[in-house]
Write a structure and sequence with these properties.
Blueprint: E1 7-14, H1 20-29, E2 36-41, H2 48-54, E3 66-69, H3 78-90, E4 98-102, H4 109-115, E5 125-135, H5 136-140, H6 148-157, H7 166-177, E6 180-184, H8 186-204, E7 211-214, H9 221-224, E8 253-260, H10 266-280, E9 284-290, E10 296-303, E11 306-314, E12 323-330, H11 336-344
Parallel strand pairs: 1-4, 1-5, 2-3, 2-4, 5-6, 6-7
Antiparallel strand pairs: 8-12, 9-10, 9-12, 10-11
Helix pairs in contact: 10-11
């Protein structure tokens, strides 16, 4: 049981595009009497997730309770960014009842838990729980999780194989650190896919974990807040591929920002993003673009070739109508020139 005098913090982790921002937006709008605060840890310098959440701020989670960290992952900038942010939230009047932390989709959660051991805050906050979101369809198809039998077979056949891909390591670390798993987008996976995803998660989890299916971020607050896990005192039960390492880096991943002019047709942009995923192995695209003749800003979010877009808010008076998209991929797949050419509609020379 956690110390009830401490301010509870819930860490929300999950792979790129698994639905973390959608979940937090639902919690903000259905707080069941809790006064919430949110910390968003972006990857790249375009604050898409923070902007989305601030646009739906409500009295129980006003805009000043939503803070962004975009200078790197939280655990790499503890002293400079994370601790001052937490202290600023704790100093708010009235003080929040609960803090939600949305990690970068690339973040390993265990180093973040270690940040809560800092003397400045350890006596005043506790990690109420770690919530891991897993995209049911992606997990079921093995894109973000290893097929254990196949990996073992590869190891038997090839002595040079001694570790999984970075993507599967991130997934495994998130599952291993979690107190509860939310299986998102179950409608896209179907019954068979959900069953397969549950099997994969059970195989990766170091201990039995509850798995809850969640569509569009809709889940009862009582299911995921108030777990009283005191995760910062339970580190040994949360194994990581990076245990024993002095620190960790995100060198396996890279992000670039592509600036776009006003778009004539959102559907054409969607086609280009799909092409980017299929031809250049891009993991994630997110950002905003202006559309000709439209006063509203178009929000674009893509996971692989699955693209979602919607108009989110009017352009502000004096705001420059320019598009900015963050593109994230594994390090070796970032070809800046080719990515720019595809997104801007410039023909790319055949390789």
């Amino acid at each position: 049981m956690s110390d009830l005098s401490k301010l509870p913090v819930t860490v929300i982790t999950g792979f790129l595009g698994s639905g973390k921002t959608t979940l937090i937006r639902h919690l903000m709008q259905n707080p069941q009497g809790k006064r919430l605060a949110v910390v968003v840890n972006e990857f790249g310098d375009v604050g898409v997730d923070g902007e989305i959440l601030k646009s739906c701020a409500i009295p129980d989670c006003p805009e000043e309770n939503i803070m962004e960290l975009s200078n790197g992952c939280i655990c790499c900038t503890v002293a400079d960014d994370f601790i001052p942010t937490i202290e600023a939230l704790m100093a708010l009047e009235p003080r929040p009842d609960h803090i939600l932390i949305e990690t970068s989709g690339l973040a390993l959660p265990k180093p973040l838990l270690k940040a809560f051991d800092w003397p400045d805050i350890r006596s005043r906050i506790t990690v109420d729980g770690v919530i891991a979101l897993a995209d049911a369809e992606a997990v079921a198809t093995g894109r973000f999780a290893p097929d254990v039998a196949r990996v073992d077979a590869q190891r038997m056949a090839d002595d040079s194989i001694d570790h999984e891909t970075p993507l599967s390591e991130v997934f495994e670390d998130q599952i291993s650190c979690a107190d509860i798993i939310l299986l998102t987008k179950p409608d896209l996976a179907g019954a068979e896919g959900i069953a397969r995803a549950r099997e994969i998660i059970a195989a990766e989890a170091p201990r039995p974990l509850p798995v809850v299916e969640v569509a569009e971020g809709v889940v009862d607050v009582r299911v995921i807040l108030g777990l009283e896990a005191a995760a910062e005192d339970d580190m040994e039960a949360r194994p990581s591929h990076h245990d024993g390492a002095d620190d960790h880096e995100h060198d396996d991943f890279e992000s670039i920002v592509v600036e776009l002019p006003e778009q004539a047709d959102p559907a054409d942009l969607v086609t280009r993003i799909e092409r980017l995923a299929n031809e250049k192995n891009i993991l994630r695209v997110k950002g905003y673009v202006p559309v000709a003749g439209k006063p509203m800003r178009l929000l674009v979010q893509a996971v692989g070739a699955r693209v979602r877009h919607q108009f989110d808010r009017p352009w502000k008076p004096g705001e420059m109508r320019r598009g900015r998209l963050v593109v994230i991929a594994e390090h070796d797949d970032i070809d800046t020139a080719a990515i720019n050419d595809i997104l801007t509609g410039t023909p790319v020379a055949a390789e």
